[in-house]
Amino acid sequence: MMIEGDGQKSDKAKVSIEVSIVEVGPRDGLQHEPTVIPTEVKVAFVNDLSRSGVAEMEVGSFVSPRAVPQLADTDEVFARIERRSGILYSALVPNERGWERARAAQVDKIALFTAASDTFNQRNVNCTVRESLERFKPVVSAAKREGVIVRGYISTVTHCPFEGPVPPSKVLDVARRLLDLGVDELSLGETMGMAVPQDIRRLLDLLLHDVPAKDLSLHVHDTYGLGVANVLTAWAEYGLRTFDTSAGGLGGCPFAPGAAGNVATEDVVYALRASGAAMTVDERAVALAALRLEPVVGHALSSRLSRVLREGLASDVRCEAVP
C-alpha cells in the first residue's frame, strides 16, 4: 500500500489521515430520477444522511427549475432540514441568480460546474468551457466577500460521451483556470464511469504536480463497476482523502448518454475502512437511509451493500415469521 499526504507516491503507509465523504445523493442522485421526489421525502433523506457521519452534503441545486425540475424545491429543502454541527451543506450554483438564491438559503459552500470537454459543456450548460469560466467570475467574487467556500467541478476528466478519451492536459488547463479564479477546491468528475485505475493514475500523475491532493476530490460513476477500484487507487496510491459518493448509488448524468449512477457511498466507505482508511461514516446508516427511498423512486438501488442489507432484512423477517 502506498499513501502519502502530499499527493506523491510513497512506500510509506500513512493510514491515519481521515477520509471525508461528500454525500451527493440529495442533489446528483435525485436529479436523475424520472419522477419528482416530494419535498418532505428529500428533507427526511438529508436528515437521515446527516446522522451517518458524512463531512459534507450536497443538498440541491439552484439552477433553473425548467432545466432540472427535480430540484426546483431546493430553497424549501434548505429551509426545512435539520442542520447538524460539523457538516457542510452545499449546493450547485450556475450563475449570479443562482448565487443570490444560495445566499438567501444560507448555504455553507457553493459548487460551480464546468467540464474538460467543450462539447459536453455545450450540452450541459449551453456554453463553452471558456464562457462558463467567465460566468463564474462575479459568482466567485461575491461568495468570497461573504466568506462562502467555493468548489469547482470539472466533468469528463477521463472520457466524454461526445469526444471520447479526454487528455489529462485538458483537465489540468481547466483546473489551473478555476484555481486562478479563486475556487478553494476541485472535484474531478469521471462522468461516464468508463475509467479504469490506469486512467486515474494518468490523470493524477499530471494534476498533482500543480494541485495538492488535499484540494482535490474524486467524483466517479460506476457504469462498469470500477468506481470503488478507482477510489481505492486515488486514496492508496495518491493520498486523495475526499470522495464524492451517492447513497445507494443513486444518480447518473442526464447530459451524458450511457452514464450510470454514482459510486455508492456505503460501498466506498466499506471498501476504504476494510483497506485501512480512517472513516467516521456509518455505512449501514447510509444504506438504510437510501433503502427508505426505494418505495418512492420505484426501483432497486444499485449498491452492493444495500442489496446485502435488503436481503438480510428480508431474511430476518422470514425468520421471525417462522413459528
What does this entry look like structurally?
- Helix 7 crosses helix 8, helix 8 packs parallel to helix 9 and helix 10 runs antiparallel to helix 11.
- The strands form 2 sheets. This protein has an 8-stranded parallel barrel, surrounded by 8 helices.
- The chain is built from 13 helices and 10 strands.
- It is an alpha/beta fold and 323 residues long.
Shape: globular
Strand order of the largest sheet: 1-2-3-4-5-8-9-10
Could you tell me the radius of gyration in angstroms? 19 Å
Q: Give the termini separation.
A: 50 Å
**What percentage of residues falls in helices of 4 or more residues?**
40-55%
Compute the average pLDDT. 89
Find the structural class using helix and strand composition. alpha/beta
- Count of alpha and pi helical runs: 13
Largest sheet: 8 strands, parallel, barrel
Low-pLDDT runs: 1-8, 10-15, 317-323
Beta-strand content: 5-15%
Summed up, what is this model?
42% of the residues lie in helices and 15% in strands. It has 13 helices and ten strands. The chain has helices at 25-29, 39-50, 74-80, 96-104, 118-125, 129-146, 168-181, 197-207, 227-238, 265-274, 283-291, 294-297, 304-321; strands at 20-23, 56-61, 88-92, 109-115, 149-155, 159-160, 164-165, 185-190, 216-220, 242-245.
Please give a handful of descriptors for the protein shown.
323 residues, alpha/beta, 8-stranded parallel β-barrel, two-stranded antiparallel ribbon, 13 helices, 15% strand, globular, disordered C terminus
